[in-house]
């Protein structure tokens, strides 16, 4: 690839790329720079590359430049503010929850992520939080909690003892948002809260209790607000009437109270965990991408960075960027206009664009194909044919023709052909060995069901929405040297575990053969491992063909419908 030929004005414009992409940041860009960027093809190409970096993990956006939201841009700035500075566990801790928010996913190594690569304790904390499967609001509140310092006025603690009893009993009638914040931030008071809840649990466990409520379905997400009421105000809680059923159960169930105690120890254990001995320093170094790497630096091959990993005693104390800036950004949903600049705009923007160029010119193409992009690409297609096979059988056991444009769905099995025509509200079917067609009206329930099938394109992905993918799921590039893989096709595995009806665990794997240019699967192999198996077993596979509306209508017509 030929490198762009920058002139001096391009070099000056490069310093303002991040601000140019944010509407709120436009006021920081000189007018002559804005005019240059709009007219310069070279700058437009650089902006396109930067946009792709910042937009990883964001979907459902029409134009490329609109994909770069203020939140992801400022989160990246918050990460890169620590370039050249010692990064410790305390610095990384508030970032942990945000790393699990798909809307804030950052696709390049940063001073924060490289610390996680090298610090086992921080990496373990991240995995612990991941397994909680918290929602976005809960993750944001957890980040805010991690950034807070314990209150210095110990006189308040004596006044909180009675409040701790009420909160332990989930009686929030007398509490305020300020009280709840104190109980979460103060190690002494949250210890009191734990003790009061334990007294409740012990008193209930003295007799056998058999709740009708399905305790096994109570998750960390359900009880998080009771254990970490930081940032809540139950006096104005819009969900109060919906909580009562769960709250009433939690008060009298030793099993669920024990879950709350375990969650308490998990969350506040991370809050109070002492720092590890690992300190990392992230440097931007253009020559680093050309050097041979070894050890952990192999993770950053192709990126213009160098990472120093040191023990605490090796590093002299440096004044870090105040954590309050990060907390303020979170409370304002990472607002550009209200955030204090963490570094000079030029330094951050230059570092970002430098890595953006390297990312798309020097690293393997495989890094650019993500599960998010596959979901986005599938949502955009209009018509598709899916043939399903089972091992050792040459003919498909099922074929599906799905058309979003015509709002129709046709299914062919080994014996029957069925067409659902939503606009005409009819279902047509016929046996393959007969000519007669049976027609029946579609009920509202059936229309809703078929529209769901049309929307998901007959199951090209195992989960209808990327937000419901299990937290233990992994997306990995498969290096396959097989001559059967066509040019431009890359192979990826999505693996996860599911609990089945008898309580056992089944491991599942979907292998996607993806057209890397279009981010669309051409073939999908479905595997699983039962408890009695030692390796994945191929259960079925799908071969996918993307059609035009005319091609689908022609096939339906040829089927005599």
Description:
By secondary structure, the chain is of the alpha+beta class. Strand 7 and strand 8 form a beta hairpin. Helix content is 40%, strand content 17%. The strands form two sheets. An eleven-stranded antiparallel sheet has the order 9-8-7-6-5-4-14-13-12-11-10, with helices on both faces. Strands 1-2-3 form a three-stranded antiparallel sheet. The protein contains 20 helices and 14 strands. The N terminus is likely disordered. It has three domains: 173 residues, no CATH class; 123 residues, no CATH class; 182 residues, outer membrane lipoprotein receptor (LolB), chain A.
Q: Tell me the number of helical segments per DSSP (H or I, 4 or more residues long).
A: 20
Level of helix content? 25-40%
> How much is the average pLDDT?
78
Shape: globular
Biggest sheet layout: 11 strands, antiparallel
Biggest β-sheet: strands ordered side by side in the sheet? 9-8-7-6-5-4-14-13-12-11-10
* Percent of residues in β-strands: 15-25%
**CATH architectural arrangement of the largest domain:** Clam
The assigned structural class equals: alpha+beta
- Count of discrete domains: 3
Poorly predicted tracts of residues:
1-6, 56-69, 292-297, 317-324, 330-350, 356-368
- Gyration radius (Cα, Å) is 28 Å
Total beta-strand segments: 14
Chart the SSEs and their pairings.
Elements: H1 8-14, H2 17-21, H3 31-39, H4 41-54, H5 70-80, E1 86-87, H6 89-92, H7 111-118, H8 120-132, H9 136-147, H10 155-168, H11 177-185, H12 187-204, H13 220-227, H14 240-252, H15 254-272, E2 278-284, E3 305-311, H16 323-331, H17 345-362, H18 371-380, E4 383-389, E5 398-403, E6 408-413, E7 416-421, E8 426-431, E9 438-441, H19 444-455, E10 474-478, E11 489-499, E12 505-515, E13 520-529, E14 537-546, H20 549-558
Antiparallel strand pairs: 1-2, 2-3, 4-5, 4-14, 5-6, 6-7, 7-8, 8-9, 10-11, 11-12, 12-13, 13-14
